[in-house]
Amino acid sequence: MKIAAACLVALLLTAPAGAAVKTVRLSVSGWTCGSCAAASRIALKKLEGVEEVTTDAKKGEAVVRYDDGKVKPEQMAAALKRLGYVAAVQSDRLAGSAPPTAATGPATFFEVPLGCRAVEKLGCGSLAMPILAALERDPRVAEAWLDHEGTVLAIVWKGSPPTGGGLRDVEDAFQKSGLDAALLSGTRDAAARKSFATRARWYRGEDVAKLSREEARVLAARLIKPVEGELGPRAAALRNEFTAAFERCFLGTTPLVKEDFAKIARKYVDEKGIEKMEAAWEGCGLEEFEER
């Protein structure tokens, strides 16, 4: 009995106080393909205390289940930084799970023009965020969501939808930004409802910033593609700097100026390389952003 008691005391003394298995979602900048995500998954699994890792290269996200008495998210970010990637904590809920605050009231769906100009089939987070916020300020609206492609808006109402599904109210919110919205019906409405039921690849509130981060990753990869081969291992570092610069433009108040990106590029390539990337800049249609 004394031996058993002594063992229990020893276990209590050696166990980390407050240790628990947790799950963290990391948003990762710098991935350009599945191999990047796979390498990151392997690096994270090597950390003591990491129990499970799943990665999604398209979303640029890693979900890690870990023992917080042995490892912290900061150490995970450091491990990815050694590979040339930048990671930030996004959420502690599991990937693919519906937000705990998701409402279940009646919903109406609208066709909207909130896609990115420079990246096809991707919603524009910086354009959508103020519109969604304005819609949610309506006391009748519980939630406003945008799909991944930026073409469908979902409005969840606190009570019965207004006459006409709330089309006039939604149109007013969009017209302030010089945009139009149209109420979905028939098979398109049915398809939107089926997709929205899981909330997978739908974004609400500040979550639409993930779309801007994805856009930043895609554009950064396009810009360095003409010089990626000659840069070798340094390509990841340049890609990360470009990604961070795009994020500052899309999510902050920093203007998108080509010369600012050229200054970053000159740390890695010569003037011939700059010329190659300038052609890629024009190919991405980024000059339109400079004019705004």
The gist of it:
With 292 residues, the protein is of the alpha+beta class. The chain has helices at residues 2-14, 34-45, 73-81, 125-136, 167-175, 186-196, 209-224, 228-231, 234-251, 258-265, 271-283, 287-291, and strands at 21-29, 50-56, 61-67, 86-91, 107-111, 141-147, 152-157, 182-183, 202-204.
Structural class: alpha+beta
What is the C-level CATH assignment of the largest domain? Alpha Beta
**End-to-end C-alpha gap:** 77 Å
Total E-strand runs: 9
What fraction of the residues are assigned to beta strands by DSSP?
15-25%
Q: Look at the structure and give the mean pLDDT.
A: 83
Task: Extract low-pLDDT stretches.
Answer: 1-16, 91-102
The helix-strand sequence is: HEHEEHEEHEEHEHEHHHHHH
- The CATH architecture category of the largest domain equals 2-Layer Sandwich
Residue share in helix: 40-55%
Give the overall form. Answer: globular
**Radius of gyration from CA coordinates:** 23 Å
Major β-sheet, in short?
5 strands, antiparallel
Q: Can you list the strand order of the major beta sheet?
A: 8-5-7-6-9
